[in-house]
Amino acid sequence: MIDVAASTKQNLLDLDREGLECFFADTLGEKRFRAHQVMKWIHHRHVTDFDEMTDLGKALRAKLQQHAEVRVPQVQFEKPSADGTHKWLLAMDGSNAIETVYIPDKGRGTLCVSSQVGCALNCQFCSTATQGFNRNLSTAEIIGQVWVAARHLGNVPHKQRKLTNVVMMGMGEPLMNFDNVVRAMSVMRDDLGYGLANKRVTLSTAGLVPMIDKLGEVSDVSLAVSLHAPNDDLRTELVPLNKKYPIAELMESCVRYAQRKRGESVTFEYTLMKDVNDQPVHARELVRLMRDFDNRLQMKDAAKVNLIPFNPFPGTRFQRPEDAAIRRFQKLLNEAGRIAPVRRTRGDDIDAACGQLKGQVMDRTRRQAEFRKSLEARAANGGVDASP
Ligand code: SF4
Predict the structure, then answer these.
(1) What value does the mean pLDDT take over residues 184-195?
(2) Which residue from 346, 309, 356, 318 is spatially nearest to 131, judged by alpha carbons?
(3) Residue 324 belongs to a domain
(4) Closest C-alpha residue for ligand 1 atom 3
(5) Which spans of this chain does the record mark as coiled coil (predicted)?
(6) Residue 9: which of 66, 59, 58 has the closest Cα?
(7) Cys-Cys link to 101, which of 53, 178, 183, 352 (CB 3.0-4.6 A)?
(8) Is 354 tagged catalytic?
(9) Model pTM score
(10) What is the Å distance from ligand 1's center to 84 Cα?
(11) Does a structural domain hold residue 116?
């Protein structure tokens, strides 16, 4: 029942179906099914004002006004790209903002969603990493990104579906914000939410092994792993988290995840960087790694590879490989029987391509300052990178 002493309003975007049912039953003293009506108003019709929820009685609407709100992220600016990609900068609080990107393609529309303001990991080739880290996003701030895009697109789940896939691949490491991400993904997959099938929601991780296992226990979404290197020495250099969870451990956790999901594949993302990880020797190592994964699962193509040509951003020391080098790498994988699509660069005219998301991060890690210092040092050095 209502706690009259409580003064702060519950943001309903913070709750999944179960949480909302409890809120209606325990806090408002209402029937649980009322929660279903409200979910539809919010996620199917994009209505945030309780007075517009016309199938709710007047008394319930008044109760909701008093104790709840639907607070969606504020759009700071939005930018359409020439290729149909659309980017939003969403204000999260006074000083932070995150980016969300919609990428339409033949027969599908994918939304790339952020999970943190910045990122605490320090992948060397990632624009978000140069921004440092501020905080985890709440469930409302994560699902709010989907809400903003769905409203903009006029998406109607089950009918006029413009938003067909969500990838948790924006700013941040989603498994470091486990509970909020899992709750938000539950709304994405709920028929009363966005109605997406499990395999159309993908969580991408840099390889937090224990959390991959935990995810397998509570969720059935698709798993993608930011691999980027086929051996530990190189991967530790590019993805420092690899020092803690080396490739063998990471692959084993992916095997366990796929086994729980009874034969679903795992996608391995491989960002190709010129003269760093794009050589034939790397392609051959990658083939072996993927073959071992298939063998462990006794399934052809259990490991899928996505090749992503590096998207440069200001100040980075990495370069995109020549097209010929990308084709050579892909051919070596294809010749070994591995399908390895090269991801088309989308939205690069609005800095919305993979690895380019930056947002506005009030950095609490000093990494922005360090990155700026390294740029200054490089400029003083005549543009030559003196970093190891
Ligand atoms: S690649 Fe992902 S995990 Fe790595 S720093 Fe960037 S946002 Fe974080």
Answers:
(1) 97
(2) 356
(3) yes
(4) 173
(5) none
(6) 66
(7) 352
(8) yes
(9) 0.93
(10) 25
(11) yes
List ligand 1's pocket residues with C-beta within 6 A.
119, 121, 123, 126, 128-129, 171-173, 206, 226
The reported pLDDT for the residue numbered 261 is 85
Residues 344, 296: contact at Cβ < 8 Å?
Answer: no
99, 141, 264, 269: which is the annotated catalytic residue? 99
Q: Can 99 be counted among the known catalytic residues?
A: yes
pLDDT of residue 3: 46
Residue finishing a domain among 52, 69, 86:
69
Tally of domains in the chain = 2
Least confident range of 91-95, 102-106, 150-154, 234-238: 91-95
Domain coverage including residue 59: 10-69
User: Partners of 168 in the beta sheet?
Assistant: 203
46 close to 150: Cβ distance less than 8 angstroms: yes
Query: Cα(99) to centroid of ligand 1, in Å?
Result: 14
Annotated binding site for S-adenosyl-L-methionine: 172-173, 204, 226-228, 311
Task: Say which residue, 65 or 369, is predicted with more confidence.
Answer: 65
CA 13 / ligand 1 centre spacing (Å): 26
Residues making up the annotated binding site are 119, 123, 126, 172-173, 204, 226-228, 311
Which of 70-74, 113-117, 153-157, 271-275 has the least mean pLDDT? 153-157
Tokens read off for 69: 């709100």
C-alpha of residue 119 to centroid of ligand 1, in Å = 6
Q: At what angle do helices 247-260 and 280-297 cross, to 10 degrees?
A: 40
